[in-house]
Amino acid sequence: MKVSSKRVVLMALAAATLATGLSACVPLVVGSGFAGGVLVAIDRRTSGAQLEDQGIELRGGNRLKDTLGEGAHVNVTSYNRQVLLTGEVARTEDIQRAEQIIARVENVNSVVNDLVVGIPSTLTQRSTDTLITSKVKASLIDAKDLQANAFKVITERNVVYLMGRVTPREANRATEIARGVKDVTKVVRVFETLTEEELARLNQQQQPAK
């Protein structure tokens, strides 16, 4: 079976992430273009929203670490100013506390809180989650009827979370693909829904000027 060059690069990025350690959440970003050995990322967010998401993740993560301490393992993922919280905290009250902290971070529009009470996940579990994420992303790339770069994939304890600005058709197709990946126990959709007309306008706006 022939393996696409993009898929090879994706798996190499996943391996590099594992090699550099799993103490922090390092997203793998793969775009729709591949030319000259360089991956080109095309994002449905504005450049301003992308920068704001990076700032939200950095500031939010630091504030949670300062407040909750080493007994908590919380991943902060922001997409178009919607924040997903995943991971483990020591006490039930810390779940709501974490959400309140993130809600006060500048530029945050909404928070999806999927934290659980428990001990922080092991290195082995995080390694498994990273591999699942890479497999889901590779499967999205292989799907010719989807723009893989429209999706952000996060995995926590074998649960896959899908984020992005997508149409209902894209959401259903991506969910179907993620459910078919080995070791995935559940798929949680955290989408911002676009109509087909809105997507067409967005794609037209993102076309390079001639």
Describe this structure in words.
- With 210 residues, this protein is an alpha/beta fold.
- It folds into 2 domains: 5-41 and 122-198, no CATH class; 47-117, Histidine-containing Protein, Chain: A.
- Helix content is 43%, strand content 24%.
- The protein has 6 helices and 8 strands.
- It has helices at residues 5-19, 47-68, 92-103, 123-142, 168-179, 196-205, and strands spanning 33-35, 38-40, 73-79, 82-89, 110-117, 151-156, 159-166, 186-193.
- The protein is globular and about 50 Å long.
- The model is unreliable at 14-40 (pLDDT under 50).
- Rounded to the nearest angstrom, the radius of gyration is 17 Å
Summing up helix and strand content along with how strands pair, one would put the structural category as alpha/beta
Strand count:
8
Please outline the major beta sheet. 3 strands, mixed
Any chance you could write out the topology, listing elements then pairs?
Layout: H1 5-19, E1 33-35, E2 38-40, H2 47-68, E3 73-79, E4 82-89, H3 92-103, E5 110-117, H4 123-142, E6 151-156, E7 159-166, H5 168-179, E8 186-193, H6 196-205
Parallel strand pairs: 4-5, 7-8
Antiparallel strand pairs: 1-2, 3-4, 6-7
Helix pairs in contact: 1-4, 2-3
Outline of the structure:
The chain is an alpha/beta fold and 210 residues long.
List keywords for this structure.
single chain; 210 residues; alpha/beta; Histidine-containing Protein, Chain: A; 2 domains; three-stranded mixed β-sheet; 6 helices; 8 strands; 43% helix; 24% strand; globular
